Amino acid sequence: MYKEKISTYLEKNQFNEKLGFDQTRLNDIPEYFSSYLKQERIPSFVCLVVRRGEVGHYSHQGFKNIETKEPVDENTIFRIYSMTKPITSVAIMMLYERGLLRLEHELFRYLPEFANTEVWESGDLNNYKTKPMDNPILIRDLLTHTAGFTYDFMLGHPAIGLYKKSGLDNYIDPETQKEMDLAKFTEKLSELPLLFQPGEKWHYSCAIDVLGRVVEVVSGQSLDDFLQENIFKPLEMDDTGFYVDESKHERFSDCYQTLLGSKEKKMTISHKSGEDEFSRPRSFLSGGGGLCSTISDYANFCQMLLNKGNYKGTQILSPTTVEFMTLNHLPENQTLQQMGDSSFSETRFDGAGFGLGFSVITDQVGAMMPASLGSFSWGGMASTFFWIDPKEDLFSILLTQLIPSGRYPIRPQAQTLVYAAIKDLKNN
Fold it and tell me: What is the pLDDT of residues 284-304, one digit of tens each?
């Protein structure tokens, strides 16, 4: 769908007045971010704005490779990292709709190794005490990042160091020195203490990777096969997968990094296309951060969600399920600010709750953003981002390749520019 729509937009270069945008203000988007490129703060910037099912704006600028000056375009493949999470969440809800699992089911029904997982109580990395779980981890806890897991790169808790010690930071088994598969990953994770009792707090984590393993166990398929058959093929996401085939390496962008908090803004190479772990078949299929994709592929996914589960006549999810997923599922309608901690996240904490795979706007004033109530979004480690505003029949996708995602405020800046370009409000 959007491969053709973007192509038509570029060919005709014709502004669609029916979409309710101010063309001049939409044109401000690439102009605004060109300063980031001129100052060599980001390697590229690709932006798509869709309203009422049509392209209101598309632009690309910058490079796949800074050294060779190879430009990005609409066919460039990007590492989307945690923008994988909504896709895996959709996979789980497809199994839910088939009656093959329930949100209130205990995780150990599907992964028995988590029956006796314990919770951190006190101590340090070398000498610590644990206690039993007050209640078991539920599938719902995994979807909402309230299960008690974490990531190795998070700060502030001594248990996090155990993730690196167990090889969960790079998914290499310390015993065999081989890349883990999801079964080995969840086995090792189950041996580590949770940071808190399940359901007690919101903490960004590898919970969706665990759900990737649940998909495998429940469906009887590998995660990549399930996603290909049930999501990528029906949504025509032909360039989305856990690695980029050699035949597509010339379209694959390099990934860069700068140090958060450092005055040094110079980018250095983080992942080299054709050489990194995303350039070959992998054992570890990260449902939380392992996919690569293009802007048109991910746009098809967003349009499906905006259409309440429908894509070109195929119902991926029911409308009721999509609406259910995009409610705030945190207890007593709490915000991330109230229930979460101050560790890293791919979204603002103020004015936002969390659904089943997405952050959800619950308070526009608190969020300091004119996105409609119920708008939902997520981003990825390399500064990628999408958001969907059902009330305005709008979604937008931003793609670049800069780690970490919090280095610059490009997400709220882009959102501000998009909403500033709207002339008529659908929700009035």
Answer: 999 999 999 999 999 999 999
